[in-house]
Amino acid sequence: MPKATDSVPDPVVNVRSALTAAGARDTVRIFEDQVPTAAAAASVLGCDVAAITNSLIFEVGGEPLLILASGAAKVDTALVADQLGSAKIRRAKPEFVLAHTGQEVGGVAPVGHPRKIRTLLDTSLQKHPLLWAGAGDHNSMFSISYEELARITGAEPLRVR
Question: Is pLDDT at 113 greater than 90 in this prediction?
Answer without folding.
Answer: yes
